[in-house]
Amino acid sequence: MRISEVLNSVTGGWVGSEGTVRLGVTGLSRAGKTVFITSLVANLLDRGRMGQLLGAANGAVLAAYLQPQPDDTTPRFEYEAHLAALTADAPYWPQSTRTVSQLRVSLKVQPTGLLGGLSGPRTVHLDIVDYPGEWLLDLGLLEKTYAEWAQGVLTSLQSRDCAAGFLGVVVDPAAKYDEAVAQDLAATFTAYLHAAKDAGFSDCTPGRFLLPGELEGSPALTFAPLAEPDNHKRGSLWREMERRYEAYKKKVVQPFFRDHFAKIDRQVVLIDALGAIHRGPQAVEDMRGAMADILAAFKPGKVGFLASLFGVHRVERILFAATKADHLHHRQHPRLTAIVAAMLRGAKDRADFSGALTAAMSIASLRATVEETLNHEGVQLDCVRGTLLDSGKQAAFYPGELPDDPAKLLGPARDGADKWLGDDYRIMSFAPVPLVLKPGEGPPHIRLDKAAEFLIGDYLR
Ligand SMILES: Nc1nc2c(ncn2[C@@H]2O[C@H](COP(=O)(O)OP(=O)(O)OP(=O)(O)O)[C@@H](O)[C@H]2O)c(=O)[nH]1
Ligand SMILES: [Mg+2]
């Protein structure tokens, strides 16, 4: 541990007039992490649209600026490139990102309140860490042996159509290890994981099989679950698979937890709830499962276990934010939030969670639509209008009416329905709009300021 980390753990992040808060930003792929961080940072640098972030609204935040990040070996979040994409004359959404990255924003804060005036300004370093939600799901592997993991996976595969290819590969786990067989098994297992993810399943471990990055083809990513044979002698296929599974835990999962997860103070989990609602009840139910799995990573008991391994400290606040709320007229936002809040409650029950402060919200990191009410055959429809991503044409769009009572969606999802009764929920892909920003204004958003207030507001007063 470096001296600064020791000091941080003793002082809660404050050393003299400087403090550090680490904000983890995660979510499954395409949830909206990159757009969230880019817009958050732009709106912290220019705070004209951050009225709900108290420290920005009351002037306690005197200045904000980008600084070199503290971790020399973590890639920097490519803020400038992503912002350039979103603010180009013909704006476009940033590229998909595949690894962990980090950015430091430093804020100069003059504390307000009774005693605030007595102390001088202090500096809050906000270290934002972007990492794929898929990596969090690997946490469970640390507690499981290869035999336990393999048995769990093989059991869940039995009922999944997309597993037919992998289950069709017949090998004798007790046979002598053969690299060609190992590679074939790993390839068909990886193909299964991709198919399972596309079908909306969330329990797709090992997460790095889906996002291998520079580890592609390495032995730590060339294994698959095998039934435990009575006899697994040295040199058997089973033994080699076990060894690679342990290498995956040690060389891939542990470093992620030690270097990134272990240091997070505040966490936002972004979820594309509208996308899941559009895909149907099974996707919604699966999202609830994924939220429970993600929340389980922050369970006090689990954190205790990890702390004994890596010195993990407790995450104090977790926000579950439904992204892309600009696809809905604001009249429906409370309903979207209620659905996410109900999913969060379900996830909390399943994760047996009582730890950090949690909240649910609907946000749009970058607003790409305007609202419009149309009269359709005598009925008023609350629509959103934007530029369609495919055709570049302007269109007004009515996504359908979310129910008042979240149980009307979550009930059928839990009961295994395969489509919604009655209403259908549609979704459109909108392109970002060309922006004309006044001095001091960040990009337009919906409730990004409220999200920031929940996550870091207490540091900025
Ligand atoms: N309308 C709208 N679309 C959004 C918003 N945020 C994200 N999107 C859409 O969601 C897509 C994914 O957003 P990203 O921020 O790249 O998502 P990510 O989680 O970083 O995705 P990966 O890097 O692939 O894991 C974007 O390309 C947009 O199409 C938003 O605030 N409004
Ligand atoms: Mg990204």
Question: Topology of this protein?
Answer:
Blueprint: H1 3-11, E1 14-15, E2 18-27, H2 33-45, H3 54-57, E3 61-67, H4 79-87, E4 101-109, E5 122-130, H5 133-136, H6 146-157, H7 164-167, H8 179-198, H9 237-259, E6 266-271, H10 273-279, H11 281-296, H12 300-310, E7 317-322, H13 333-351, E8 357-362, E9 370-376, E10 379-387, E11 394-397, H14 407-414, H15 448-456
Helix pairs in contact: 2-4, 10-11, 11-13, 11-14
The chain binds guanosine-5'-triphosphate and magnesium ion.
Walkthrough of the structure:
The chain is an alpha/beta fold and 461 residues long. 36% of the residues lie in helices and 16% in strands. Strands 1, 2, 3, 4, 5, 6, 7 and 8 form an 8-stranded mixed β-sheet that branches. α2 packs across α4 and α11 packs across α13. The longest helix is centred in the middle third of the chain and has 23 residues, at 237-259. Magnesium ion is lined by residues 33-34, 96-97.
By DSSP, the count of extended strands is 11
Report helical residue fraction.
25-40%
The number of distinct helices, counting runs of at least 4 residues, comes to: 15
**Share of residues in strands:** 15-25%
| Secondary structure category | alpha/beta
